Amino acid sequence: MTKIAFIFPGQGSQQVGMGQEFVQNSEESKAYYDQADKVLQFELSKLMLNGPAEELTLTYNAQPALLTTGVMVAKKLMDAGIQPDYTAGHSLGEYGSLVISGAISFEDAVQIVHKRGLYMNEAVPAGQGAMAAILGLAAEPLKDVCDKVTNEGDPVQLANLNCPGQIVISGTKVGVEKACVAAKEAGAKRAIPLVVSGPFHSELMRGASEKLGEELTNVQLADPQIPVVGNVWAQELKDVPSIQQELVEQVYSPVQWENSVKYMIEQGVSIFIECGPGKVLSGLVKKIDRSVKTYCVYDEASFNEVVEAIGGELIG
């Protein structure tokens, strides 16, 4: 039996016009955008559909924007008869997977990821943190590089273990710069600085995670009805305590994306559907295992392609 995973992208995949065709053509889809506006008490949907891009990209706007579009797309697929057997999201995307699994309401998730963005934005003053993608160096030697730089007084660590040959590091600006030089000396093919607003998934985000943890105590969570594979341990989040721990630790811990995808494949998943704008996760999945099928759903044409290919029956 074919098993399907819905996967949700993280920051960087947002773009002006995201979900526009769905919103224009379906009142059910538009309702998600309207609900996000109502929860946040500002017109997030206007930013999503019309920009400006600079404002949409701000972490406290990008996070609820990606969540809203991802959940809207996933629910549309489910209404068309395509049901996920597993779900996972990259960093922020994990909240989308929790919504469709029934572990958290859409309204609560929108509010929480907006606050998550605010806390992450406040955690480190602008210009003091950085991230970079390291290509062509394995995790173990790269970790040795980061540990050495950190021990010399400039914190830097592995942040996203995305796929073979692509790992993102995060930390202080100086730490990341030093680690990039040392990584190339250790054999990395390239070290690419990323345009980000902070050192996400590093120890410098602990303050943000503590504030998020306090917020989560006020949110009603439930055991997932669809298996959710978490970023921190690349294992299923089976109950409320594990979800709470995951969401707090995830802010300052590495995203184990490669291992998460491998886990789902080991459980029999052979089709991955990326819900939301962009094709980043689908590209990473293919680099992890070329034998699986990947689809990206971001507009009506891609939605119809998936429904036709997988054999779901379009409803409404």
UniProtKB/TrEMBL annotation:
Top EC group: transferase
Molecular function in Gene Ontology: [acyl-carrier-protein] S-malonyltransferase activity
Cited Pfam families: Acyl_transf_1
Transmembrane domains' residue ranges: none
InterPro entries in the cross-refs: Ac_transferase_dom_sf (IPR001227), Acyl_transferase_dom (IPR014043), Acyl_Trfase/lysoPLipase (IPR016035), Mal-CoA-ACP_Trans/PKS_FabD (IPR050858), Malonyl_CoA-ACP_transAc (IPR024925), Malonyl_CoA-ACP_transAc_FabD (IPR004410), Malonyl_transacylase_ACP-bd (IPR016036)
Domain Malonyl-CoA:ACP transacylase (MAT): 7-298
The EC number(s) this enzyme carries: 2.3.1.39
UniProt keyword Transferase present: yes
Keyword Transferase part of the UniProt annotation: yes
Keywords: Acyltransferase, Transferase
Substrates-to-products reaction catalysed: holo-[ACP] + malonyl-CoA = malonyl-[ACP] + CoA
SUPFAM superfamilies referenced in this protein's UniProt entry, alphabetically: FabD/lysophospholipase-like (SSF52151), Probable ACP-binding domain of malonyl-CoA ACP transacylase (SSF55048)
NCBIfam families with a match to the protein in the record: fabD
Family: Belongs to the fabD family.
Protein name from the UniProt record: Malonyl CoA-acyl carrier protein transacylase
Organism: Ureibacillus galli
